[in-house]
């Protein structure tokens, strides 16, 4: 499943599991479709940033780390959404996802 976040300033698409995690970090239920009104986007952005800052990359448990691809942290996965929400705050527009 893919989830697309849509605003008047742009769109991004994320894998479903990552998108649901980000939606929950913003303080919303993990329902798709959903939306955040323009007045509530700054609060959602603040909550997302705080949750991503608190999140840590999972440690590698493989003994042969040279052959293991590094884990991608939630902070890296969430960066495009943080940028989109920041632009939405500046433009004063709603954010929807489906």
Chain-wise SSE layout:
Blueprint: E1 2-7, E2 10-15, H1 16-25, E3 34-36, H2 41-54, H3 74-91, E4 95-97
Antiparallel strand pairs: 1-2, 1-4, 3-4
Question: Which features would summarize this protein structure in a list?
Answer:
98 residues; alpha+beta; four-stranded antiparallel sheet; 3 helices
Overall description:
It contains 3 helices and 4 strands. The chain is α+β, with helices and mostly antiparallel strands. The protein has one domain. A 4-stranded antiparallel sheet has the order 2-1-4-3. Helix 2 packs antiparallel against helix 3. The termini are close together.
Tally of helical runs: 3
Rg over CA atoms, rounded to whole Å, is 15 Å
- Strand order, biggest sheet? 2-1-4-3
User: Number of domains in the coordinates?
Assistant: 1
Note the main sheet: 4 strands, antiparallel
Q: Could you say which structural class the secondary elements and strand pairing correspond to? A: alpha+beta
Distance between the termini: 10 Å
Shape: globular
Note the beta-strand portion.
15-25%
Q: Which parts are unreliable, with pLDDT below 50 for 5 consecutive residues or more?
A: none
Helix content: 40-55%
Please tell me the overall pLDDT: 89
Number of strands: 4
Along the chain, the helix and strand elements come as EEHEHHE
Give a brief outline of the structure.
By secondary structure, the chain is α+β, with helices and mostly antiparallel strands.
């Amino acid at each position: 499943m893919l989830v697309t976040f849509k605003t008047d300033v742009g769109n991004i698409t994320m894998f479903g599991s990552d998108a649901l995690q980000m939606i929950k970090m913003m303080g919303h239920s993990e329902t798709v479709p959903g939306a955040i009104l323009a007045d509530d986007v700054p609060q959602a952005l603040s909550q997302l940033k705080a949750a991503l800052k608190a999140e840590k990359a999972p440690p590698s448990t493989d003994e042969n780390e040279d052959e293991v691809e590094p884990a991608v942290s939630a902070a890296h996965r969430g960066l495009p959404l943080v940028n989109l929400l920041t632009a939405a705050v500046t433009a004063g527009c709603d954010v929807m996802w489906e």
